[in-house]
Design brief:
With about 400 residues, the protein is of the alpha+beta class. The protein has a domain at about 1-55. Helix content is about 35%, strand content about 25%. The chain has helices spanning about 5-25, 35-55, 75-85, 85-95, 95-100, 110-120, 135-145, 155-170, 190-205, 210-215, 255-265, 400-405; strands at about 65, 130, 215-225, 230-240, 240-245, 255, 270, 285-295, 300-305, 305-310, 315, 320, 330, 340-355, 360-365, 370-375, 375-380, 390-400. Strands 5, 9, 13, 14, 15, 16, 17 and 18 form an eight-stranded mixed beta sheet that branches. A four-stranded antiparallel beta sheet has the order 4-3-8-7, with helices on one face. Strand 14 (about 340-355) and strand 15 (about 360-365) form a beta hairpin. Helix 1 packs antiparallel against helix 2. The longest helix is centred in the N-terminal third of the chain and has 21 residues, at about 35-55. The chain is globular, with a radius of gyration of 24 Å. Bound molecules: zinc ion. Zinc ion binds near residues 230, 278, 280, 281 and 285. Zinc ion (ZN) binds next to loops.
């Protein structure tokens, strides 16, 4: 994130400086200027606006602004801080780009309310203030009525509902009906990659938005029938990876994010009851299933699934999961020979406490280091303080190979 827009700012800054100089030297002011001056002024301002739009330059505060807790809303505050530090989404909201992208007749009410919160969080003069998310939360509950019923809100569920609803409001293809799923003739010769990109294209034909640009990836699930040895592949779009946590080895020892990813992608035996229909046997058979990432998103949201449901209760794992801050390589979980696919961490949503009595907070990366967001309070923290047994949702941004090379 740091430095990503620096080359853009140079141009933009010099353009603004030029306009300021011209305006001040010539005493150009709308009220007092004669016609020619006012025409010049207008053209200059027009140029400035065009430049603003094209170069997407934003005058931002330092992002160290808290969110008021308006009654058990720490889950919302923590998720909003993580999303607010997702640069692609943040800039899209602050520039109100969705207004130009409106394809649906519906009002983008939630998008407006969400952007309003972000505008408060990134206000240049916003230091020492706290943003109240009440209007956003009310709008969210109106848009997603089923969410109001929950007594203990889960941040991960909230994130899913929120992204899904925002996507619906800003979908560039709102009127495309989902075609009936017709089984395509699969020729053995069609390679996996071609099939995957055909499926992705079909997805974009009906679901295409900034949310998809930033968060969506494609998961590949390979099934192998133990009866007839038939292999089949399906592709699903994902907006987050929900990873199981391995059982602790020796007491007190933690696990690594890699352990969780290995467990997620390891071959799993499915018995008849839980397996899908084998295409060749045309019945449910015992099979093995393996998951891998076919298409990598710009931002990968990794959910450490600490909550497990048994028949009567939900329990929470407090195992400490260690994770890399930079250069998380997801290449090993992608297509064969895809090479290293690197990601850098920029936000963490934490859950502390128990299943019934919990509290959510967030760590987010600012230009000059990490900050701890605990509702209305924001404090600087060291990198060592990020590793706790409370890490719940990790937000990784794909690293740009050119910026990685020059990073300090
Ligand atoms: Zn079979």
């Amino acid at each position: 994130m740091p430095g990503a827009t620096s080359d853009v700012n140079v141009d933009q800054g010099s353009c603004q400086a030029l306009c300021r100089t011209l305006v001040s030297q010539n005493g150009l002011q709308r009220e007092t200027a004669d016609i020619s001056q006012s025409v010049l002024y207008t053209s200059l301002m027009g140029l400035l606006l065009v430049a603003d739009k094209e170069k997407e330059q934003l005058n931002l505060g330092n992002g160290r602004v808290g969110l008021r807790n308006i009654g058990n809303t720490c889950f919302l505050n923590a998720v909003v801080q993580c999303l607010s530090h997702t640069q692609g989404l943040r800039d899209y909201c602050l520039l109100k780009s969705y207004r130009q992208e409106r394809y649906s007749k519906e009002d983008a009410k939630l998008m407006e309310a969400f952007s309003q919160v972000l505008a408060g969080l990134w206000d240049v003069n916003g230091e020492d203030t706290v943003v109240n998310p009440r209007h956003f939360y009310t709008t969210f509950k109106e848009a997603v009525p089923c969410f109001s019923g929950y007594s203990q809100q889960d941040a991960q569920e909230f994130l899913r509902f929120l992204l899904d609803r925002l996507h619906t409001e800003i979908n560039r293809r709102p009127y495309v009906r989902r075609p009936a799923i017709e089984k395509e003739q699969k020729h053995a010769k069609i390679r996996i990659a071609e099939e995957a990109s055909a499926m992705w294209k079909r997805h974009l034909e009906r679901d295409d938005s900034k949310i998809v640009d930033v968060f969506s990836g494609q998961l590949r699930s390979s099934l192998h029938c133990s009866v007839c040895s038939h292999y089949s592949t399906t592709f699903d779009v994902f907006c987050d990876l929900s990873l199981p946590l391995p059982k602790k080895g020796s007491a007190g020892s933690g696990v690594t994010l890699r352990d969780c990813l290995d467990l997620f992608s390891q071959e799993e035996k499915l018995d008849k009851e839980n397996s899908p229909m084998c295409e060749r046997c045309r019945r449910r058979t015992q099979c093995t299933k393996r998951l891998s990432i076919q298409r990598f998103p710009q931002v990968i949201v990794i959910h450490l699934n600490r909550f497990s449901m048994s028949r009567w209760s939900i329990s929470k794992s407090t195992v400490c999961v260690s994770f890399p801050l930079t250069s998380l390589d997801l290449g090993p979980y992608g297509p064969v020979d895809c090479g290293p696919i690197l990601y850098d961490l920029y936000a963490i949503c934490n859950h502390s406490g128990t299943v019934n009595q919990g509290h959510y907070t967030a760590f987010c990366l600012e230009d000059d280091g990490w900050c701890f967001y605990n509702d209305s309070s924001v404090t600087a923290v060291s990198e060592n303080e990020l590793y706790t047994s409370q890490a719940y949702v990790l937000f990784y941004q794909r690293s740009n190979s050119t910026t990685t090379a020059t990073r300090k």
